[in-house]
Specification:
- The structure is a single chain.
- This protein is an alpha/beta fold.
- It has 2 domains: 118 residues, D-Maltodextrin-Binding Protein, domain 2 (3-Layer(aba) Sandwich); 109 residues, D-Maltodextrin-Binding Protein, domain 2 (3-Layer(aba) Sandwich), CATH 3.40.190.10.
- It contains 11 helices and 10 strands.
- Strands 1, 2, 3, 4, 5, 6, 7, 8, 9 and 10 form a 10-stranded mixed beta sheet that branches.
- Strand 1, helix 2 and strand 2 form a beta-alpha-beta unit.
- Helix 2 packs antiparallel against helix 11.
């Protein structure tokens, strides 16, 4: 009788222990791997804790240039939620790297001109004014097109279409990614070109405005669930959260608008 009671007690203890372990695992939530454009760094770093508090899930955020993340995913890297420009996301879906029907537009940001905080703002009210301001500037910084940064690739084409490639070459500073605002803040360049979302969060730089006229360009950022994600439901919930009023308020404060 005593032997039976001890056996039962041990069994109950093991059962309670397993229940406690399961409850703790559930309380820890799901880990969601996110790969996103570096242009979203400031906004997502602020939104992530809000989502984690609201859901109990944990975000692992990875940032890089759009071209770099695309290359990595095509090479086999996976993520639960991927946030890149719309054309790249469409390419990844065609390559079966995005779960069918999961792509949704989140936010957009213009490619813009910036200067050091407190510096006089150049005239970019028209294409001709932009051309004059670029010629008058002592130095210009933007992302190296060879590295694949979206704003750098685009602005290099703008410079070419303006017929200024040779004239600006000697005073152009190329950075590997989203460092244009940082270079401006240090006073190492007079004019910078970058995504507005890379400029606004840096107190040492000030946004002048988007590129004028036919050169105006807005990068649309789109989220999609990675093919084969083991946390697709949680990733979908994150995508929905990124369109919530709380998240959109953060995006707006960082130079991004609802997509």
């Amino acid at each position: 009788m005593i032997r039976l009671s001890l056996t039962a007690a041990v069994a109950v203890g093991l059962l309670l222990s397993s229940i406690g372990t399961a409850e703790r695992a559930a309380a820890q939530g799901v880990e969601i791997k996110v790969l996103a454009s570096v242009a979203l760094t400031s906004a997502l770093d602020e939104i992530a804790p809000q989502f984690e508090r609201a859901t109990g899930n944990k975000l692992t955020l990875g940032y890089s240039l759009i071209a770099d993340i695309k290359k990595r995913i095509l090479a086999g890297e996976t993520a639960d939620l991927i946030i890149l420009s719309r054309p790249v996301m469409d390419d990844l879906q065609k390559a079966d790297k995005i779960a069918p029907g999961s792509i949704t537009d989140i936010v957009g940001t213009p490619i813009a001109i910036a200067v050091k905080a407190g510096a006089p703002k150049p005239d970019i009210s028209s294409v001709d004014a932009l051309k004059r301001s670029l010629l008058a500037a002592k130095s210009i910084v933007y992302a190296d097109p060879a590295k694949g940064g979206a704003s750098g690739v685009y602005f290099a084409r703008v410079v070419d279409q303006l017929g200024l490639t040779e004239q600006l070459k000697s005073k152009t500073i190329l950075v590997p990614g989203a460092q244009a605002a940082e270079v401006l803040a240090k006073g190492e360049a007079e004019i910078g070109v970058a995504q507005a979302s890379e400029i606004v969060p840096d107190p040492g730089a000030q946004l002048v405005g988007p590129l004028p006229g036919e050169f105006n360009s807005v990068t649309k950022f789109t989220a999609g669930i990675g093919a084969g994600s083991k946390a697709s439901d949680a990733a979908k919930a994150l995508g929905q959260f990124l369109k919530s009023p709380a998240a959109l308020a953060v995006f707006k404060s960082k130079g991004l608008e609802p997509g």
